[in-house]
Write the structure tokens for this entry.
Amino acid sequence: MALGINYDTTTGDIQPIIKYDSRSGRLSRIDRINNENTPVDITRSFKAVFDLENVETGFIAFNAGAAPGFSLTRLADGKQAVRPSDDYKPGVRVLVKLHKDCGGDIRELAGNAKAFLRGIDELHNAYVEGLKSNPGKLPVVILKDTVAITSGEGAKKSTNYSPVFEITGWTTRPQDLVYTPKASVAQAPAHGAPHTGSTAVGAPAATAASADSEDFG
């Protein structure tokens, strides 16, 4: 539980996003095509450098008809974010550099679904352990699998899918993977704010291979 997330409580520059859907266990790249947000499924091809050195935690609100709201702080800074209202749930945001086979650009991955947070928390635990043998580097991550999590009973029974992220290697920071903090913003009508923006992972072995930098060029 290195991220310190309580699963039971629950603007800056426009950054293209990827989205993890806990209801389906799918990862999509959200592209802007003809002024519309178009999801492109990258579940099977997903591979990315995760900037877990600068992962942000705090509170995120996703409400229908409104742009997302964020109140986040950089985990490494040791500060606690303020929860603006009950609409905001514990959440995480991290920047990633996609492998060329699934886009090749810098994207934002953010979410507040409990199933998603569990997967990210486990990934961060593996990152902290692997960093001991890979100082100053960032992890190369794939979506290895998903784990079904069932809650409720009868008519209220539902199933969500937690991502199983796996660190397959380590690499130096890509030049274009530059950390930019997410400005804390209150929710606003969708037309009045920019659009932004989702388990068990073993610790990587000490001999984890270094990633070929050309894969992320």
Strands lie at 17-21, 26-33, 36-41, 47-50, 56-61, 69-74, 89-98, 106-111, 138-151, 158-171. Confidence is low (pLDDT under 50) at residues 7-12, 187-209.
